[in-house]
Amino acid sequence: MSSATTRTHNRQLALAFISTAQLVVIFNAAVLNVALPSAQADLHISDGNRQWVITSYTLVFGGLLLLGGRLGDLLGRKRVFIIGLVGFVVASALGGLAPTTGILLAARALQGVFGALLAPAVLSLISLSFPDGKERAKAFGVYAAIVTSGSAIGLLAGGLLTEYLNWRWALLVSIPLGIIPIIGAVLFVRDESEPDRTKRLDIPGAILATLGLGSLVYGFTLAQSHGWSNRTTLGSFVLAVVLLTAFIMLQARVRDPLLPLRILKERNRAGAYLSAALGLLALFGVSLFLTFYLQTVKDYSPARTGVAFLPLAIAQVIGSSQVGARLLTRLRPGTIMAGGYLGAAVSVLLLLLLDVDTSFSPVLLIAEIGIGLFLGTALMPATSLAAYRVGAEDAGVASAMINISTQVGGSIGTALLNTLATSATVAYLATHQDAQRNAALVHGYHTAYLWAAGSLLLAVVVTLALVNAPRPNMNVSSPPPEGKAVL
User: Fold this and answer.
1) What SS3 state is found at 266?
2) What Pfam family is a match, any one (predicted)?
3) DSSP string, 444-456
4) pLDDT tens across 152-210, in order?
5) Please, are residues 391 and 259 in contact by the beta-carbon 8 Å criterion?
6) DSSP character for 469?
7) What's the count of helices (H) and strands (E) in the chain, helices before strands?
8) Smallest Cα–Cα separation from 383: which of 414, 410, 413, 405?
9) Class for domain 3-188+198-202+254-476, per CATH?
């Protein structure tokens, strides 16, 4: 085997192990969607606080991704990648053994910390290993297929493990799942870029970003129990604005910012980040309420719920790895993204046809396939634009931003839609004295679906307004004037 063939073979193996590591992260996000009702009952978690089992992970993950991306740039992506993966597995074990709600939430937050180290390194290593436009599109197609399959595996495994063992195994299973990519990373992953040890870490920026995002999500949570006009709720939102504004001002002044503002000034990257956040806001919210619709209203078992989610997850794999990857060599990314978000919005609106007595097929089946297929198609080019025309020194931070967008969007979506749905359910019961609880719950879920569809329509507008990059086989791989592009 020639040296060139060996390098190509090793690079493909590295891609497989890198993507598999990210699969473990996605798996953990999905697996608790199905296991959440059982965990809620076992640990006596209230309806208002149940979303924190999801958001305690996504919030910390999103808040620290910038720091994780910068650590990869400064210390070496492979090193940070392996540390993040090992730590993530350990945190998963702690969550699976958690005796109380507090320890479970702490373990989920710890998962977020190590996931924030892992995720930016994943995209950076892929971006720097596959610099050519067409080759990169194929690499991201493989990455998307493996990663999005994590949702399918997570949903199915979460149901089976919860029903036939218990919900704790939904977290403990990450221990064996993480061993293979750890070994593979040590043997095959290469990071040929030189770490920049001259730059300083922006710790104050990381603190401001994390606290600001935390206050924002917490405000949405308080709105459910205290109301939107309550002083504590408004205070949380005001604090979030103050902290995030201070973060932006700090980034404009410090020598080595956590988030160089130049990364956000390129319109295509900004459009990809914002539209992805809006897309995941919808997906996280819809997934949460479909879980409770199936288990609470339709009385599905956890295993049956996991199986019921498979059409959505499989369609998402096909959308990202096949449809999105193929279209990206023929159409502009913005065209694919706008069409995908629009199709997903229409599919979400189909969920308004669900009622207490609605069967799984055809409405829910068609809606799931549409949401997965169209959203997977849209998110694939959005992910590929994360490092569009970015210098190698900023590859980690730019790659972190797409993960930040999706995780923060998911956190806000879970908190916001949970608040809106719960409030709508309470209001329905107040005005319909003889209403059954399930009818009230479905009414609340419909409210959440409407807002989720609105989020996807807004993603269409953002994409049309900002994303104008050419397709990769035109001149995407051509370097910008400064000659530092990695895409």
Assistant:
1) coil
2) MFS_1
3) HHHHHHHHHHHHH
4) 677 777 788 888 888 898 888 888 888 888 888 787 776 666 666 666 778 888 888 87
5) no
6) P
7) 18, 0
8) 405
9) mainly alpha
d(CA 18, CA 77): 11
Alpha-carbon span 417 to 412, nearest angstrom: 8
C-alpha–C-alpha distance, residues 143 and 122, integer Å: 10
Question: And the tokens for 110?
Answer: 């710890």
Residues 6 or more apart in contact with residue 115 via CB below 8 angstroms: 25, 57, 61, 84, 88
Cα–Cα distance between 421 and 407 in angstroms, integer? 21
Longest distance between any two alpha carbons in the chain, whole Å: 77
Amino acid, single-letter form, for residue 60: V
Q: What are phi and psi of 433, to 5 degrees?
A: -60, -35
Q: Prior bond to 362 cis, omega within 30? A: yes
Q: How many angstroms separate the CA atoms of 463 and 106, rounded?
A: 36
In the prediction, which pLDDT does 298 show? 92
* CA–CA separation, 311 and 366 (whole Å): 9
What are the sequence ranges of the domains in the chain?
A: 3-188+198-202+254-476, 203-253
Q: How many CA atoms lie within 13 A of 256 on its CB side?
A: 15
Task: Give ∠ CA 374-347-370 in degrees, rounded to 5.
Answer: 40
Look at residue 485 and give its three-state secondary structure: strand
Q: Round the average pLDDT of the chain to a whole number and report it.
A: 81
C-alpha 183/C-alpha 173 separation (Å) is: 17
pLDDT value at position 279? 92
Predicted local confidence at residue 56, as pLDDT:
81
Residues 6+ apart with CB under 8 A from 354: 293, 363, 364, 442, 445, 446
The pTM assigned to this predicted structure is: 0.77
Let me know: does 371 contact 344? Beta carbons within 8 Å. Answer: yes
- Residues of the chain short of pLDDT 70, as ranges, are 1-11, 29, 48, 62, 128, 131-137, 140-141, 144-152, 190-199, 221, 224-225, 391-396, 400, 472-487
**What's 20-59 look like in SS3?**
HHHHHHHHHHHHHHHHHHHHHHHHCCCCCCCCHHHHHHHH
Q: What distance in Å separates the CA atoms of residue 436 and residue 56, rounded to the nearest whole number?
A: 32
